[in-house]
TrEMBL record:
It comes from the Bacteria. Residues 357-379 are annotated as: Disordered. The chain crosses the membrane at residues 21-41, 85-103, 110-130, 172-190, 197-215, 276-296, 308-325. Keywords: Membrane, Transmembrane, Transmembrane helix. It comes from Promicromonospora alba. The keyword Plastid does not apply. This is DUF2029 domain-containing protein.
Amino acid sequence: MTAGRAVDVREVDPDRTIKQLLVALLLVGSACYVLLGSPFIPARFLYDSKKIATIAGGYQGYDSDKSFSTVGAIYRAVGLADQPMWAAMLGYVLFVAVLLLSLRGRIGNAGLVSLALIAGAIVLAVVYVGTYSKDVFVLPIALIALWRRRGLWPELVLVGAMAYYAHEFRDYWYLVIGGYIGFRVVMARGFSVRRMIGTALAALVVLSVVFQNYLGVELDFYRTKVNEVRIGDVDTRTLIEPFFDLEGPVGSLLNSATVLVTFAVPLPLFLRLSPYYLVVAVFLLVLWFMFARAVHLSSDESRTDPRWARLVALVLSLTVVQSVFEPDYGSYVRHLTPMLPLMLAVILWRPRAFGGPGAPTAQASVRVPGDADVPAAAR
């Protein structure tokens, strides 16, 4: 099949048109919901939003919290201190821009499972970035990661953006930079799900050594410190508590590694026996399964494409660092939300989606039940 013929088939593909229409309707409906003020969202999801709104309005009582102070000052500087609806739309529209760029040329690859993941990502965006939010400011980093240009410049700009975010918002993003570079180095020599998991665990070992020898604390010290005053709080229902009652660096490492595993296989959320947490747990389980499957089935063209590697490395490095700092699973989902479009891009990746010189024009495919075709080269 020629390249021109492949394009013609895609242009008249009725399934692709239906998928685009479904996503468009969901995006418009969610935008209307945001414009209405996102009613019925439980108050516990809006604590950070209210704190940011208070700071943006000029209250100086949170000066000791650099990240909240910075975010509040930005909203105040752009005139959104008393405009919650427009602040919400700003975050939501920015997320939609990242999502559409991630899905560009890929929506036709989506099956029912992927469409459900897209719907879930939009819902989470409404909750977590469709309001006053610190996580809105991660979305420009995601946009840079999706930059189509090859070469050194996109990498330098991406690392620079992460460093700026670390300096102004969250210090632990300096560790994300280190993890990103480490994953890129490993991926340059080949990648697989097994190596992905091994590299993530090795990164935790390295972080454990750094924390113990240079900071003088154990790997999960900061999570433990934050949660000490939150135990028993009725609004903290998904607190991450130690899985192993072991003191010292070994116990800390085991607990952080277990937290990392539960990010992808969220057994603690399943055990809550709550319909809401069950839905979230299923979403996370399917999301990470599809992400791992995409890495496993990726073709040689994908593995050597720096843009594909960029997305995988950024998602993995942030998740590893989250396993060290996140105090609860709600915070984990909140901080993962800006990365969801990048994960969807990896899940729906096809080498020809980005095009460019040397990109394959057509591939034979094999049907995988429940989702899109997989290139035959990946079998």
